[in-house]
Amino acid sequence: MSMKRRYLIYLVLPLVLVAVAAGWWLKPAGFNRAEAALAEFSVEKLSCGSCVQKINEALQPVAGIGTIEVSVTSGRSRVEFDPSRTSSAEIGRLITEAGYPARLRTELSPAEYAGLRQEQTRLGAKYVARVGSRLVARDDFEQALKLRLGDREASPALLEQLRRQLWEELQQREILLAAAESSGVVVQPGEVDVRLEKLRQGHDDLDQLVTRRFGSMEAFRRQLRNDMTIEKLMATKVPADIADPAQRQLRLQQWYGDLVQRTEVVIFDPQLKRVTAGGGDCGSGGGGSGGCCG
């Protein structure tokens, strides 16, 4: 399999990402975060950045609401609130009345939420995010960003664009690798050696190409092993008796959509959280079933 073909697998999966959109808003003035509790909801009918905006507009005027996070990708919303002024039940009701049925997944007391923030601050020193059980190392993320930037001038706008693109790809990849771990899918080093040898036969300048794109052969081997792990995982998710390519792709999309809904994603890095906020509008390709627009 050629290098180009290996990466086609990632061109299929974005079709099921209804929208990689999330919204984060700064906590309002006067909100005492030290006394804040946290509620997380499963939210239906999210399809684009407009949905995020509507939920934000429904909650922002309410006294006692702090930071609001809405992820279209995962169909979840996390809301900080002052339990002496409002409640998770009231927040859920407001989200539902905005047109997006909400169900409380979990609620943390002020003491529990303070403990979670401390833990995230500690992890944030070394990691930019956690996807499922997998932590995304800050050094790895910054190195990947540097390689992606190449010789171009590092303008703030370009860095923001690259950071957002890199995160969207990493998030998708880490979700699949987390699923592979939980399913016990393993690729042995010998399997990687065989695939690497095939690649060498098809690319005389493989070492140079690897150095330019991945920094080192060791980094490429890690990437290749992860690619093969994902391939092996996905091969187990579509029954062999489904021969029609369209049906196979549909089955794969359904499985991946469910997987995204189940996988918790937490961004520790404030800069990364900021650049991934917002998301596209309904006309940008982010619209899907159950849309909010109109």
TrEMBL record:
Gene3D superfamilies: 3.30.70.100, Porin chaperone SurA, peptide-binding domain
UniProt keyword annotations, A-Z: Membrane, Metal-binding, Transmembrane, Transmembrane helix
Transmembrane segments: 7-26
PROSITE patterns referenced in this protein's UniProt entry, alphabetically: HMA_1 (PS01047), HMA_2 (PS50846)
SUPFAM superfamilies in UniProt: HMA, heavy metal-associated domain, Triger factor/SurA peptide-binding domain-like
Pfam families: HMA (PF00403), SurA_N_3 (PF13624)
A GO MF label: metal ion binding
Entry superkingdom: Bacteria
Residues of the HMA domain: 37-103
Protein name per UniProt: HMA domain-containing protein
